[in-house]
Request: fold
Amino acid sequence: MKAYEIREFGIDNLAQAERPDPEPGAKQVVVRFKAASVNYRDLMMVEGRYNPNLNRPLVPFSDGAGEVVATGSEVTLWSEGDRVMPTFMQGWIDGEIDHEKARTALGGDLDGVLAEYGVFSEEGLVKVPGHLSYEEAATLPCAAVTAWNALVVSGNLQRDESVLLLGTGGVSVFGLQFAKNFRAKTIITSSSDEKLGRADILGANHLFNYRENEAWDEAALVYTGRRGVDHVVEVGGAGTLARSLKAVRMGGHIALIGVLSKSDGVDPLPILMKSIRLHGIFVGSRTMFEEMNRRIADEYLKPVVDRVFGFDEVTEALNYMKSGSHFGKLVVSIP
Reply:
């Protein structure tokens, strides 16, 4: 089978390789991939910024969707022809995360999905919602589950609450879609008026261009009558956390996800004085994934796919991700 491998770090060093077609063990399933999606983590992994000590060669990318083509003798959950997606962490089925579960992430600890075939435990797969294409389904395992965990599981999102979303990448756009589906009020930021226009079409209540005025924390306070927002989906990291602490209400919730920006340090005093709940979000469990998929199917939600690249265009997809030009998700088709 054809697969991409990280041998040496760097986008231009990502290479196609020939690997043996996988055979399933007794409780394993072989999936023929039809599509994979790109996360910022994948870019960092390829460039050596996520884990400089990464075991190589490694098949990158955590998120994909495909069809079951073979099952082991003891498999009971899946049959040939089923449309499935692997979970981001193969070992996190339910409950709280721990070190053992965290060491089962695809495209990092384990080979990922940027290949024609993959073999997985039968418990490490979930069903594709019936109305989604493979390209759409491939966007769900990391970005969508992260947004779902941030707002619905960690945040217990309620109708009419306010949500501040930073940027228009995959997690933030999924967060916008979930927040609107729960009838919450949304504020979204971008440096691009064109992207803000697309967010407006998706139903964002308030749009803020931080290139024209970087004080999006003040804009959030004004929008909420100085009360502050109920939730922040914080994808920027250390460089934006201080503004998120200002923007959130007393007793509010910040879901900390991103590592996009750095700073010299964040003053923890507002966390104490405003009784803020700051929760680190590391994707989510299979149970969360399945709960999210039921909502997606019931509400007929559709992921936002910015561009689809061919299997021979993976370097172009990664460079496009690096440029920050995307809105929503980038997908690689696996023919």
About this structure: The domain at 155-280 is CATH 3.40.50.720 (Rossmann fold). The chain has two domains: 2-143+302-333, 155-280.
